[in-house]
């Protein structure tokens, strides 16, 4: 099982804070550092000192880290045009020496669109745009031969594209699709993704969604074993009850809610909880870290929790 660190910098972060977390995660042997793609703080957070842009952050980390993989859960299709997005990700992939992964989703947080002047279409249109973006980004990366790349969709049109630059990873960087939708989301994952992620679903619900994606793969004559299945989980671990309570309070959670909706408690309790996602089919876990100043939390997870799960 792979363990990755997942951050939410829209709650307020500097690049230096994100670099510290990514560097610590790399030193502690985590497989990857991922971040959300949002521009507005959620809940009661002040958002200070402000958000950071996902792909600008990852470009910096591509040069400031050495081995850890880097990516988004997930880039919003409403924020970027697909052609420039394909260029940006390919460039960051080259800057990192082939360590980038692209999570791509439809976008959902209307308030951040309003706050920064970004159009927010209907749910149906957002999914239409997501599907066209998935086809275009992967098509631009995959395209070979002397003829230019072309695409004609409802929302995007490409004419005479050289389909450059190519990413370092071939045939392409891994593409991640996720969510809880019962029909369209599994179909998109089976068509375009190398990984399917369930964001903060309970283990039983995650298992059901994994089965839907496996069925969608079979409908497309794709081997379900070619798909990586993963889950994102909020985590709050401590060496004693007081430390667990302190860490939960620091991110605005009660200990009881953290245990119910995420993985919280002692190292043994957190490991047992994570095994529930493993047992329903998750081969990769994204540990959501909300307090970016608490690097000891990462070290505790790496040294005490991960060995109990993979043993």
Keywords:
311 residues; alpha/beta; TIM Barrel; 8-stranded parallel beta barrel; 12 strands; 44% helix; 19% strand
Report on this structure.
This protein has 311 residues and is an alpha/beta fold. It has one domain: Alpha-Beta Barrel (TIM Barrel). The chain is built from eleven helices and twelve strands. It has helices at 15-27, 54-64, 82-96, 110-115, 123-142, 184-192, 203-219, 241-250, 255-261, 267-279, 295-310; strands spanning 2-7, 32-35, 69-72, 75-76, 100-105, 149-152, 157-161, 175-178, 195-199, 228-237, 263-265, 284-289. The strands form two sheets. An eight-stranded parallel beta barrel has the order 1-2-3-5-8-9-10-12, surrounded by ten helices. The protein has a two-stranded antiparallel sheet with strand order 6-7. Helix 7 links the parallel strand 9 and strand 10. Helix 2 runs parallel beside helix 3 (82-96) and helix 10 packs across helix 11 (295-310). The chain is globular and about 65 Å long. It starts with a strand and ends with a helix.
